[in-house]
Design a protein that fits this description.
By secondary structure, this protein is α+β, with helices and mostly antiparallel strands. It has 14 helices and 15 strands. Among the domains are: 148 residues; 95 residues, no CATH class. Strands 3, 4, 5, 6, 7, 8, 9, 12, 13, 14 and 15 form an eleven-stranded mixed sheet that branches. A two-stranded parallel sheet has the order 1-2. It has a two-stranded antiparallel sheet with strand order 10-11.
Amino acid sequence: MPVPIICLDARVRQFAEQFRPCLNKPQYQHFVTVLMGLLLCQEQRTLSGLLRQIAGEPKPWGLSRFLAQAPWEADRIVLQWWTGFREQMQPKVAAELERQRQQRGIRRGRPKTPVVTGYLIGDDSTIQKRKGKKMEGLGKHHSTTEGKRVLGHSLVQGLYVLLGRRCALAPQLYRQQRVCKKEGVAFRSKIDLMIEYIRTFEPVEGTLTHVLLDSWYSAKAIWRAARERGFLITTGLKSNRSLRVNDPASLQGWRWQKLTDYTAELTAGDYVPVMWPTQTPRQVYVHVISTRVKKLYCCQVVIVRESLDDPLSEARYFASSDLEADVDTLLRHITARWDIEVLFGDAKELLGLDQYQLMSATAILRFWTLVMAAYTFLDEERDRLRQQQQRPSTLGDARRELQRLHRRHLLYWLHEQFQAGVTPEALCDQLAA
């Protein structure tokens, strides 16, 4: 049943209010409609599907104009929710720093500086569009789900994780060179897009930023951008990369050796059994060496194997600029990157990130932006539920709680209407989608 906008929950209304300066009155009404539709929709998140959640709202073509043509800036929407996130997290960071100061006690020597680490995570995801041949920005991109190249859009996304909270950054559309030439826009590689995240990111004051990326982004230009900002960085490594090993027989005392060859020379005694830090910990075998990776910088190279009996081809490789980290800390850096995979999964399953039917690149980017706004709000609600119930909560839990609240508001509203003498026929007309 469609929900009247008057039944909008107070927390959703409060979240939406911060965006009012970015939009005029009609645009703000469309913004609230999309936000409420994304949170309540149980069907495909097409424009019609979103509008069916709200009673008495505009037609799909009005919402289509809002996404494709209306003069509003998606970047201002992102800046607004990012500013709100920073304001929420600043006192929590200060409290955590003070907690660390209190716990370190009094000991000889210079006291250890308290550190709160925020993870800046980046990745891309392919959104398949089998029937979207007339959509802008379409290209052939590799899909890990399909295991092949498919027709669709490539979303490059950033995520900031701090003290258990997550905040999405501005989504970006990657277009291949031939697509850019066809559509008359400047080409920017995925590396360029990721560097922009690093160079423009403004962390919460008092935190240390650690960039996390997979092996596709283990480029020197990205590492250089992180180093210039004073950020740490941990990325995956492909098995064909080379690292520097000691070799007394060579003139310079060292040589380059491929990771696969280096791993083949390791013995069982070179690995340390540790627990992989996830919700269901499992034992893995880890080897760490401080060295230099070819076309990168000095770093700690981490080799992870599920079992020493597994073939070497199943070993995984990582590099981290955190030269002082121990094995457990390195593994926490590596596993923290998984949060962005969870973002893609939740945004697609819970908010319909991949269910749009929009033609222009502008409309697609704006839709992605509104989805990420809803994601950021849901994470805020997830954290509130976690503190309230004193147990872990998911984005799905937060969304179900919001839907329950809106059903409750709707029932109370109907009760008030009947008490006021409104007839069922009049209410049916009012609730007609």
